[in-house]
Specification:
The chain is an alpha/beta fold. The chain is built from 8 helices and 11 strands. This is Calcineurin-like phosphoesterase family protein.
Length: about 270
Amino acid sequence: MTSIRDLGELSGEVLLFGGAYSNVQALDAVIMTASARGIPASRCIFTGDVVAYCADALACAERLAGMGCHTILGNCEQQLLNGAADCGCGFEEGSACDVASQTWFEHASRQIGPRASDFWGDTPDWLTFTHSGQRYAVIHGGALDVAQFIWPSDTGAVFEAEFAEIEAKTGIIDAVICGHSGIPFERVIGARRWINAGVIGMPPHDGRPATRYAILSGDGVRFHSLNYDTDAAARAMENAGLVQGYEAGIRSGLWPSEDVLPSALRR
């Protein structure tokens, strides 16, 4: 069963972000950004995956809990709660993502240990809310598969199928907010919108180290760059032995795992 929490009506700017990816420097930066913009935690929404490639899984879990923003479960949180041996992304065996994930997930598991239920035991799978007359659903990856990668280059049929599955559980919605894939985008399908807020823990494979978050307002959604201490994040990974290429990707803005991307998004 999908657990869904309704937040009611939200007004003013809403900060949307995902994929902290164990990158505590980036998480600290987005928390500071929310404070600087005067956006309280009650109007911040995290789309899941507190942990992943970087070094500070426990620190990120603690920071996010202390922040008190609205969150949903990513596949990484679900796998940690289940005591699983991998992140559950379903990467092709032997791919760059598959090889790297074995190391970083084990690292995160060691840091989090039995505290997973303390952090995420009551976290819902999805959220719903209304804002400026529009009704939103917040999911992590896909409606049937929490770890599904949905890309801006996917066909309209992919999005229509997702909307149908989501609305079967939430009722009519105007837009979906998600994360997981690491690429921020907005896609308009008929009268509805699909919004991927991006992730803060890893750049969107565009050759720049800045990551992304989004701001939802009465004028719609806008994507913003997040600058943070990338060198500190990369050094922490190196010191932890997490050197499968993502430590270089944080600095260069390019993923070492381009094989996970559809051909239209590869450089």
